From TrEMBL:
Domain Acyl-CoA dehydrogenase/oxidase N-terminal: 22-114
EC code: 1.14.14.21
The UniProt record lists the keyword DNA damage: no
Annotated Acyl-CoA oxidase/dehydrogenase middle domain residues: 120-202
Organism per entry: Dactylosporangium fulvum
Residue ranges annotated for the Acyl-CoA dehydrogenase C-terminal domain, each copy included: 234-370
Top-level taxonomic group: Bacteria
Catalytic activity: dibenzothiophene 5-oxide + FMNH2 + O2 = dibenzothiophene 5,5-dioxide + FMN + H2O + H(+); dibenzothiophene + 2 FMNH2 + 2 O2 = dibenzothiophene 5,5-dioxide + 2 FMN + 2 H2O + 2 H(+); dibenzothiophene + FMNH2 + O2 = dibenzothiophene 5-oxide + FMN + H2O + H(+)
Cited InterPro entries: Acyl-CoA_DH_C (IPR013107), Acyl-CoA_Oxase/DH_mid-dom (IPR006091), Acyl-CoA_Oxase/DH_mid-dom_sf (IPR046373), AcylCo_DH-like_C (IPR036250), AcylCoA_DH/ox_N (IPR013786), AcylCoA_DH/ox_N_sf (IPR037069), AcylCoA_DH/oxidase_NM_dom_sf (IPR009100)
Protein name: Dibenzothiophene monooxygenase
Membrane-crossing segments per the record: none
Similarity section: Belongs to the DszC flavin monooxygenase family.
Length: 399
């Protein structure tokens, strides 16, 4: 075991009892559609949201690789949880590199004290690509936000909401709004067949308050790896699902005594064909996790370069392309594993009480963030024509 592995194990040991408690209730929450307030509370109590926050602000100062390894473990316990916290860790990561020292310290301290951040970014309708209708108005320094957002993942569990809004026609950025602001309403109307507990519903803003110092303008951003970061949270979650598939397949096979007449063993666990399926599942899970962490390594490399000085644009391009390559591979790998799981047994595998279908439903839902076909095209264009990667994955109408 390397020194970095030993460091990770010490960190992970702090959270594994919490992950285990979350895993215990995962099937019940899924079957009853019981929102994960208790699970998020357990993570808040364990200060999981402060994993990347420096120790002087109340966090653990973990590396970005350690964060993603932990997200994979959390995804194995319940795949809803890493997605719930996706915006939280994204905003945390941006603040770690915020050139505004006062704002950086203010927000890292809040997160270190346990604040959880959700998002309100996406708008439906016929808005043009790259634009938002949600607007910030300024009445003699009283800043207010009005608009409607959808797919507001994690916001029902959050203390603060990062709202993508514009001021005027050009300036866009994330405005931080308290979740209990009287001008903000959160609606639990997410009806997807997978990731059902992520609270990815509607957020309505009718004059919600924000402060000028708590708006993170796009124009103030320098080069960054945040698009790759957000995509990699999905890949970590998918990798966690692959781990859960192996775990559940093994538990099911070990617990069975009935065999098929065409089988080759006295028990399912001694049947070479069943062993082969479980071995393949294990290999697919290993491949998904290894691929995800290889792409995360590109972000780690950027952080090392940043610590020493300037980061060349080529490093950001490499991280974005690597993440798209990983997305192509991991999405396909985990979906195959979720289907192959059902080759380990018979009709009892599809009992609703087992909820094993959740792995495919959750993986399928995550894999459309964003469609793999466009990842493949972007990577192909890069390989064939040395095209630069795109740094936005947004939806809208071309005008």
């Amino acid at each position: 075991m390397t020194r970095s592995d030993e460091s990770y194990e010490r960190l992970a040991d702090r959270f594994r009892p919490t992950f285990a408690k979350i895993a215990e209730g995962a099937v019940t929450r899924e079957l009853d559609r019981e929102l994960a307030h208790e699970a998020v509370g357990l993570l808040r109590d364990a200060k999981f949201g402060a994993v990347r926050v420096p120790a002087e602000y109340g966090g653990f100062g973990a590396s970005i690789t350690d964060l993603f390894r932990l997200l994979i473990e959390l995804g194995e316990a319940d795949s809803n949880l890493p997605q719930i916290l996706r915006a939280h860790f994204g905003i945390t990561e941006e603040r770690l590199h915020d050139p505004d020292a006062a704002r950086r310290e203010r927000w890292l301290r809040r997160i270190g004290e346990g604040a959880v951040i959700g998002n309100a970014v996406t708008e439906t309708g016929d808005g043009a690509l790259g634009t938002v209708a949600t607007a910030i108005t300024d009445d003699d320094g009283d800043w207010r936000i009005t608009g409607a957002k959808h797919y507001s993942t994690g916001s029902l569990y959050a203390d603060w909401i990062a709202v993508l809004a514009r001021r005027g026609e050009e300036d866009q950025g994330f405005a931080m709004v308290r979740a209990d602001d009287p001008g903000l309403s959160r609606v639990d109307d997410w009806d997807g067949f997978g990731q059902r507990l992520t609270a990815s519903g509607t957020t309505l803003l009718t004059g919600a308050a924000t402060l000028p110092e708590d708006v993170f303008w796009y124009a103030d951003r320098g080069p960054n790896y945040m698009i790759a970061f957000y995509q990699l949270v999905h890949l970590a979650t998918l990798s966690g699902i692959a781990r859960a598939i192996v775990r559940d397949a093994a538990a099911y096979v070990r617990g069975r005594r009935r065999v098929f007449s065409h089988g080759s063993g006295a028990t399912p666990a001694s049947d070479p064909l069943v062993q082969q399926v479980v071995g393949r599942l294990s290999g697919l899970a290993f491949a998904a996790e290894a691929t995800t962490l290889a792409a995360v390594g590109r972000l780690e490399h950027i952080n090392r370069l940043r610590a020493d000085g300037e980061v060349p644009q080529a490093a950001y391009d490499d991280a974005e392309i690597a993440t798209s390559r990983a997305y192509i591979t991991v999405a396909d790998t985990v979906l195959r594993a979720a289907n192959l799981l059902f080759e380990t047994g018979g009709a009892s595998l599809v009992r609703r009480s087992e909820a094993l279908d959740r792995h495919w439903r959750n993986a399928r839902t995550l894999a459309v963030h964003n469609p793999v076909i466009y990842k493949e095209r972007a990577v192909g264009d890069h390989v064939l024509n040395d095209a630069a990667p795109g740094y936005s994955w947004i939806v809208g109408v071309k005008k």
